[in-house]
Amino acid sequence: MQKNYMDRFLFASILFALLFQACSTDQINQEEEILDTNESASLYFPPLNSDSWETLSPSELNWNEGAIPELYTLLDDKGTKAFIILKDGKIALEWYATDFDKNTSWYWASAGKTLTSFVTGIAVEEGYLELNDPTSTYLGAGWTSLPTEKENLITVWNQLTMTTGLDDTQGDCKTPNCLTYIADAGTRWSYHNAPYTLIQEVITNATGEDFEIYFADRLKEKIGMNGTWLSSNGDNNVYWSTARSMARFGLLNLNNGFWEDTAILGDSAFLENMKNTSQNLNKSYGYLWWLNGKESAMVPQSQVVFNVPLMANAPNDLYAGLGKDDQKLYVIPSENMVVVRMGMDTGEAALGPSSFDNALWEAINRVIEP
Question: Could you give the strand order of the β-sheet that contains 80-87, starting from the edge strand earlier in sequence?
Fold first, then answer.
């Protein structure tokens, strides 16, 4: 009798413990869900059809206001035209050169590749294309000068990840005679504008809408951006807009593809792959986004692998659109922050990452980490 009682007591104790653990787990999960919701709700979004944008003062954020003049001096000395820091979606710092203001447009250069990546995700989500499809599915056979079996190895995914294997020394030229073979697709990373630019033609042919119309309808107008795509050479298509429009796009990405509660790109798998290492050749590259905090990095016009993160002075979780003459769009989830820099060449004429990234983040850190 005593043994049966002890067995029942032991069983009841174990059951109670399991139920308590389950209830605790449910409570933790609910608290995590509430936390996730609150994090999204904590972001401010400027209205779509208004010039207004709420601000936060550095003093409210307990930032080191004494370091701000030094940051602005660096920006001015390096030919910066516009600089914005968003914190929780609100403008914490906004600086312009004397010949520039919030209504002046500037070129994104290759930072605009991030726009094309995002719109590609929308086209995938809407069922117009598949990343693993050969590019020839959308551009037709003979879009390169490669033999058919080699051309068919190149997919839309290869275009997004800079792994087409095409000769990057041919620059922006995207006619078949310029698209020549160096390596099989997926075996070589090289920063190459031509196959990137052709993604826009892929989207045009897949959706049946001109890329710029599709872009405006699915992205630009839905988040209140301004701007336009322009080409100076007939090949590469470059986006021009105000710095605030670039900041809007950064805010959209900070909120994982949602503008407030509206999904602009709801494909969480695509978004996750877009801003994480996309291939094993350049670990600091996603889908046309640059990634910090990785064990190694490559840079444009080089096959050297540097065993260092992209930006030693920047937060590890930063991902970025980076363009010629140091156009910068930084998204930093851990800080709930977006940073925009537009301007002239800082002195390196780099096509993507440069030492200015570290110099700029050294100055930013002195402000935000008093």
Answer: 90-96, 80-87, 337-343, 327-332, 319-323, 290-291
